[in-house]
């Protein structure tokens, strides 16, 4: 993999001179405040996976507001679980928007997620995905570009429709609150059934 090419690609797609760091990271990430894109040095992953990583993180560079993300990250009334939910919902929005902006990424995203799934990157290969919580099923469903065969209730499908329609950060906050409330109730029902 040509690391310089990936760095230039990230800067071109983001339309800014953001800092790109390659290192021993478990996955890619983007620091929305300091404008640093971190890419892992994976030797056994192909071009599609790196295009996915760059495209996804560039999506954060283009669409995740630093102030909005920082406000939630430092909001002590929001727990870590809420922030994880927010990340799942925001990932769905930024991936949709970056693919809309750069349609050529759609094929790379699909191929890369299929490769990562085949290698059990998400750690679900030996689990029944339909028995997982809604937020976990939603995460896999959106990451697969809505191609995984996963069961959802009617209410969950309505929330998935809302996720698919996300455009603004305010939309993300609103839909995350709704999904978080639903999942808290889901957990309470599962606990009551034990």
Could you walk me through the main structural features you see in this protein, from its secondary elements to its overall organization?
Helix content is 61%, strand content 7%. The mean pLDDT is 89. It has 194 residues and is mostly helical. The chain starts with a helix and ends with a helix. 27% of the residues are buried. A hairpin with a 4-residue loop joins strand 2 (29-31) and strand 3. The longest helix has 24 residues, at 169-192.
Alpha-carbon distance between the two ends: 49 Å
Let me know the number of strands.
Answer: 3
Proportion in β-strands:
5-15%
For the biggest β-sheet, the strand order reads: 1-3-2
Query: Tell me, what's the shape?
Result: globular
**Uncertain spans:** none
Query: Could you tell me the radius of gyration in angstroms?
Result: 17 Å
The main β sheet shows up as: 3 strands, mixed
Which structural class matches the secondary elements?
A: mainly alpha
SSE arrangement, N to C: HEEEHHHHHHH
How many helical stretches? 8
Please, what is the average pLDDT? Answer: 89
Secondary structure: elements and pairs:
Layout: H1 3-14, E1 19-23, E2 29-31, E3 36-40, H2 47-63, H3 66-74, H4 80-101, H5 105-118, H6 134-143, H7 154-164, H8 169-192
Parallel strand pairs: 1-3
Antiparallel strand pairs: 2-3
């Amino acid at each position: 993999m040509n690391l310089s090419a990936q760095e230039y690609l990230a800067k071109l797609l983001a339309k800014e001179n953001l800092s790109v760091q390659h290192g021993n990271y478990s996955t890619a990430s983007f620091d929305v405040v300091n404008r640093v894109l971190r890419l892992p040095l994976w030797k056994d992953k192909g071009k599609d996976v790196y295009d996915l990583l760059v495209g996804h993180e560039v999506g954060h560079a283009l669409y995740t507001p630093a102030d909005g993300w920082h406000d939630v990250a430092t909001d002590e009334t929001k727990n870590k679980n809420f922030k994880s939910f927010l990340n799942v919902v925001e990932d769905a929005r930024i991936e949709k928007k970056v693919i809309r902006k750069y349609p050529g990424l759609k094929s790379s995203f699909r191929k890369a997620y299929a490769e990562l799934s085949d290698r059990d990157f998400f750690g679900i290969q030996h689990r029944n995905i339909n028995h997982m919580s809604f937020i976990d099923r939603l995460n896999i469903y959106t990451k697969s570009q809505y191609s995984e065969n996963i069961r959802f209730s009617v209410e969950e499908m309505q929330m998935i429709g809302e996720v698919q329609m996300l455009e603004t950060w305010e939309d993300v906050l609103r839909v995350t609150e709704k999904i978080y409330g639903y999942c808290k109730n889901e957990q309470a029902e599962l606990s009551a059934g034990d």
